Amino acid sequence: MDELFEPLRAGKLELPNRLVMSPMTRSRAAAGGLVTASTAEYYAQRAAAGLIVTEGTQPSARGQGYVATPGLHSDGQVEAWRAVTDAVHAEGGRIFAQLMHAGRVGHPVLYPDGGLPVAPSPIATGGKIFTPDGMLDHPVPREMTADDIAQAVQEFADAARNASEAGFDGVELHGANGYLINQFLADGSNRRTDEYGGTAENRARFGIEAARAVAGAVGPERVGFRVSPGTTVNGVRESDTPELYSALVAGLAPLGLGYLHVMELDREQTRRIRAEWPGTLIVNPRPLPGTDAGTPEAGVEVLREGVADAVAFGRLWLANPDLPARIRAGGPYNEPDPATFFGGDHRGYTDYPVLG
Questions:
Q1: DSSP-based three-state secondary structure for 9
Q2: Secondary structure tally for the chain: helices H, strands E
Q3: Which residue, 223, 230, 219, 273, is CA-closest to 249?
Q4: Rg of the chain, C-alpha, whole Å
Q5: Helix, strand, or coil here: 34?
Q6: What contacts 24+ positions apart, CB below 8 Å, involve 37-45?
Q7: Do 103 and 84 touch, CB atoms closer than 8 A?
Q8: Which residues of 43-68 are buried (b: 16+ CB within 10 A; e: fewer)?
Q9: Is residue 339 over pLDDT 90?
Q10: Confidence at 193, pLDDT banded by 50, 70, 90
Q11: C-alpha to C-alpha distance for 277 and 255, rounded to whole angstroms
């Protein structure tokens, strides 16, 4: 397991180990999208990670996709997050905010104006959202105009600046799991005929523009980008995964980002990305045969194969705040209670909503 404890430089960060805490939505924010003292305690307990990536955090009111999730688009939210980053830094940790615009994975009940969620095309997820009033169908979203797209890009950049003001070491753009950037990438959810639809290069354009704007706002070395090639989460479908992610990586590579973060479903696809991505690559490793979640052994495997520079886990960190110490000791590992999960997929490399 020694490979997991080698230091690593990612952007301008010096990571003391290669164990990354994966982003996992918690749905425990207070009114107004404010994180609480329990959030600060939760992340500070896990500060031994090489890097913590927070729960998905909406860059705007319209970007919200779940109940009780935090934002980074108001002064109050920035102030609340500052207590979290201070707590993590006091324990010697490093923490990135994950910026997640949910796009069509939303509902009018979440928005102050009661409007529709937005997406590249007016195609519903086919799924439902948990609300205090029970499970509700995701509605058909409103197709984004050119002005809407420009506004969303600006919101990502503004939220990144707010994250910096709140004391975060950087931000990660969520381009995975069927949220807005992934909705643009996938041809099953993007039927546009303008410069943001059609070819793989066009469908990658929105994510690349968002990354460029965020890099310009806080510096590229303080920006990560997360992808989930081949995912079908939240109803997305990709018919051209290899070509699509080659186009995306080709557009992101010149920006000099701090890292690319891959949620692995297929090892061959991960190898293709590794061959094309010039920078630091973090991988949520696929489960090893006979397991249903990422394990330290799976992390060692991707490091030894050379397809990753660091490994990210979710479920392991939930039940084991002292995960590095437990790995060094060879266990034992606590098992999380599946009853605390909202989502239907409980694998450790997902970021479905979690009450952890």
A1: strand
A2: 10, 14
A3: 273
A4: 18
A5: strand
A6: 37/83, 39/70, 39/84, 40/83, 40/84, 40/86, 40/87, 40/88, 41/87, 42/356, 43/84, 43/87, 43/88, 43/93, 43/95, 44/84, 44/87, 44/88, 44/90, 44/91, 44/93, 45/321, 45/322
A7: no
A8: bbebbbbbbbbbbbbbbbbbbbbbbb
A9: no
A10: very high
A11: 11
Is 179 designated active site? yes
Beta pairing class for 13-15 and 8-10: antiparallel
pLDDT one-digit tens code per residue, 113-170: 999 999 999 999 999 999 888 999 999 999 999 999 999 999 999 999 999 999 999 9
Residue 162 burial (10 A CB sphere; 0-12, 13-18, 19+): buried
Q: What is the DSSP letter of 194?
A: S
Listed residue (191, 143, 172, 346) closest to 260, CA to CA: 172
Say if CB 330 and CB 314 are below 8 A apart: no
The neighbour count for residue 254, using CB atoms within 10 Å, is 11
CA distances from 24 to 50, 144, 276, 351 (A): 16, 27, 27, 4
The neighbour count for residue 323, using CB atoms within 10 Å, is 22
Query: Considering the entire predicted model, what is its pTM?
Result: 0.95
Per the DSSP assignment, residues forming a β-bridge with 131 are 134
Per-residue pLDDT at 293:
77
The per-residue DSSP string of 103-132 comes to: TTS--GGGSTT----EESSS---S-EEEET
Catalytic-role residue among 42, 43, 179, 352: 179
Instruction: Specify the DSSP element, H or E, that contains 211.
Output: helix 200-218
* Nearest alpha carbon to residue 217 among 156, 277, 267: 156
